[in-house]
Design goal:
Chain A: This is ABC transporter ATP-binding protein. The complex is a heterodimer of chains A (259) and B (378). Helices cover 38% and strands 25% of the residues of chain A. By secondary structure, chain A is of the alpha/beta class. Chain A folds into 2 domains: 1-84 and 165-226, 3-Layer(aba) Sandwich (Rossmann fold), CATH 3.40.50; 94-161, no CATH class. A 6-stranded mixed sheet of chain A has the order 6-7-8-3-9-10, sandwiched between helices. Chain A has a 4-stranded antiparallel sheet with strand order 2-1-4-5, with helices on one face. In chain A, helix 3 (100-108) crosses helix 4 (116-129). The relative contact order of chain A is 0.16. Chain B has 2 domains: 25-101, Transcription Regulator spoIIAA, CATH 3.30.750; 149-376, no CATH class. Helix content of chain B is 66%, strand content 7%. Chain B contains 12 helices and 4 strands; from the N terminus they run E-E-E-H-E-H-H-H-H-H-H-H-H-H-H-H. Chain B has a 4-stranded mixed sheet, covered by helices on one side. In chain B, helix 5 runs antiparallel to helix 6 (205-243), helix 6 (205-243) runs parallel beside helix 11 and helix 11 (321-338) runs antiparallel to helix 12 (344-376). The chains are: A alpha/beta (259), B alpha/beta (378). Chains A and B meet through helix 4 and helix 6 of A and helix 1, helix 2 and helix 12 of B.
């Protein structure tokens, strides 16, 4: 195994009762890249994400994150590893009884001896970097719009400067302008913080604007990985339909190229 | 939108693979005159080791790793006039990026405003409480208006819904109301017997039980039980509909929520609470009679004879309160349901506050009834 991959999944099998979701699935996330994971509903995109971060018990297979095998970690090693990744859930998954700043402070509380003013300052920095205005700091999640909740969730995921960022449907439910801004934010953060990003999405525009590589989940495994242009050349019915459908053509019109 | 310093693809800022646990990262500091040399890793984990008082110069030539927390420290140090020396390009870019996101320090010292805050909070609470009474009055009005409309246009009235809610709030509450009231009768007889025996006035235990149960305890405890059961159920059912915009959908379909939701629920309470109160009276008297028989040897027939001498006005004074309690519980429950917002948290908050407010309001109303009845000499 090489040191260039942030995540390596080999021979993964996930099964719920009789229902096999993944079988013999291989996937790599390279350091510093944004990998978009796509697939139809029920192909287990979110299950794959949850398996990698250890929220799902897998049946078979190896998952190595930053060179460490997820399955064979002691709880202390796991805790250390969890500080090197950040996860943004679909609707932000913010703690509803805490304000946005307090939500971002939660992971920072793991840092021993960090003074209150430093913790608050760093939390506000992350909130600003996620593109939220300063007055969002003291708001509760229920007072925020969907897009702002996602940004706040991103700020919390970035709190400890992780090396890997997991994003579950970051643009679902956002208006096109908000989604576009979020896409650019992800690229900017990746460039500034040298993140490796694992991005589950349905959004063709997102794939087009920010992903370096795309992995297509179908038939219980990763059917293909590659750049957008490589995807266009693949001759699988679902992949073809996905990347050549009317929505795909709209996402790839020239004025998008300049964006 | 924030602008970030761009970085050519493929360059790496850090060499992380060597450190497995970021918590174990080390930061080396050497003081050299007014120059503080930093080496190793300047991360959020090593941030607390840095001096509180900013040095005039910081040397960064030996630094291999830096994250946004480190960049934040350096950006603020630079803002305060510290010179940063030996900065690598990638680290400089990160500091630029972070500096653009650092909020300008406008946060002045917060003045000591404790008294001001207490006064402000008290004022807000008082206004809030007055507003609450105003809203409850509005709900009462909406209920009465819906009722009048139902009387004028009986076809709009939902009988099935009324019957269903009568079953839910009435029939299903019968066992708990019955058992509770029976036990209250038992307790009264037992305690009353112990006290009255000292004066040889055991037989007055019947009057004690009859007046206490018929006038106060039967209906009050029934109302409290129903407030606990039904007010929470009303808030939860209406609130979850409110949460999922079902009530807005209803309005767009030309259905009046007052008519469809509030009227049958409050009316069901109005029908069933007096019946439950009557049942509670009977159960309380039965319990009292049983216990008198066991402890004081007052036979059931003797109990009945004594009971006949108790004025019927006590029973009436008790049951007259039932419809008032019913409306209080119903209006508070429905109002709380309508106040639920879009989040699940507010549903839980409103449900518990509906129960507390309903029980509290029932007890206050009972106290007012006591005063009014005693003034009227009933």
């Amino acid at each position: 195994m090489t040191g260039d991959n942030a995540i390596e999944v080999r021979g993964l099998r996930n099964q719920f009762g009789d229902h096999v979701v993944h079988d013999d699935l291989d996937l790599d996330l390279r350091r510093g890249e944004i990998l978009g994971v796509v697939g139809g509903s029920g192909t287990g995109k979110s299950v794959l994400l949850r398996s990698i971060v250890g929220l799902n018990q897998t049946r078979h297979g190896d998952i190595r994150v930053l060179g460490q095998n997820i399955g064979s970690l002691t709880s202390a090693e796991r805790e250390a590893l969890e500080r090197r990744w950040g996860v943004m859930f679909q609707d932000g998954a913010l703690f509803s009884s805490l304000t946005v700043r307090e939500n971002v402070e939660v992971p920072l509380r793991a840092v021993r001896d960090l003074s209150d003013s430093d913790r608050i300052g760093l939390a506000e920095l992350k909130v600003a970097m996620a593109g939220l205005p300063p007055n969002a700091n003291d708001k509760y999640p229920s007072e925020l719009s969907g897009g702002m909740r996602k940004r706040a969730g991103l700020a919390r995921a970035l709190a400890l400067d992780p090396e890997i960022l997991f994003l579950d449907e970051p643009t679902a439910g956002l208006d096109p302008i908000g989604a576009d801004a979020f896409d650019r934010l992800i690229v900017e953060l990746r460039d500034a913080l040298n993140l490796s990003v694992f991005l589950v999405t349905h959004d063709l525009d997102t794939l087009h604007t920010c992903c370096d590589r795309i992995a297509v989940l179908a038939e219980k495994k990763v059917l293909a990985t590659g750049t957008m242009s490589e995807m266009l050349a693949i001759d699988h019915p679902w992949v073809h339909e996905y990347f050549h459908g009317p929505r795909a053509r709209a996402a790839m019109t020239p004025d998008h190229e300049d964006a | 939108m924030l602008r970030f310093a761009s970085r050519p693809r493929g360059t790496t800022l850090t060499t992380p693979a060597t450190i497995r646990n970021p918590e174990d990262a080390t930061l080396d500091q050497t003081q050299d005159g007014d120059l503080l040399r930093l080496g190793g890793a300047l991360l959020v984990w090593t941030l607390p080791q840095l001096p509180r008082d900013l040095p005039t110069r910081i040397g960064l030539g030996d630094l291999d790793r830096m994250d946004t927390a480190g960049a934040w420290y350096l950006a603020r140090a630079r803002q305060a006039g510290t010179q940063l020396e030996g900065l690598s390009d990638s680290h400089a870019r990160l500091i630029e990026t972070v500096a653009q996101s650092v909020a300008p320090p406008e946060r002045g010292a917060i003045p000591d405003a404790r008294w001001h805050n207490i006064l402000e909070r008290t004022g807000k609470r008082v206004v809030g409480a007055l507003g609450y009474f105003h809203e409850l009055a509005e709900f009462l009005g909406r209920f009465l208006a819906a009722w009048l409309r139902a009387l004028r246009h009986p076809s709009e009235f939902r009988l099935t819904s009324l019957v269903y809610h009568c079953q839910e709030t009435g029939l299903r509450a019968v066992p708990i109301v019955f058992v509770m009231s029976f036990l209250i009768g038992v307790v009264l007889a037992f305690q009353g017997a112990a006290q009255l025996r000292q004066f040889g006035a055991e037989v007055f235990v019947v009057d004690l039980i009859a007046i206490a149960v018929l006038r106060e305890l039967g209906i009050l405890l029934t109302a409290i039980i129903v407030a606990g059961r039904t007010a929470s159920a009303l808030t939860a059912s209406i609130g979850s509909m409110k949460m999922r915009e079902e009530i807005d959908a209803m309005r767009t379909l030309g259905m009046d929520p007052d008519m469809v939701l509030i009227l049958p629920r409050v009316l069901a309470l109005l029908v069933t609470l007096p019946i439950l109160g009557l049942l509670a009276d009977l159960a309380g008297l039965t319990g009292g009679a049983l216990m008198s028989w066991i402890v004081l040897d007052i036979s059931p027939s003797m109990f009945l004879t004594r009971l006949g001498e108790v004025d019927v006005s006590h029973a009436i004074a008790g049951l007259v309160k039932a419809p008032v309690f019913a409306v209080i519980i119903g209006v508070i429950g429905c109002h709380a349901g309508m106040q639920v917002g879009r989040d699940a948290e507010s549903l839980g908050r409103m449900t518990s506050s509906a129960v507390v407010n309903a029980i509290f309001a029932v007890i206050i109303a009972d106290a007012i009834f006591s005063i009014v009845f005693s003034e009227m000499g009933i």
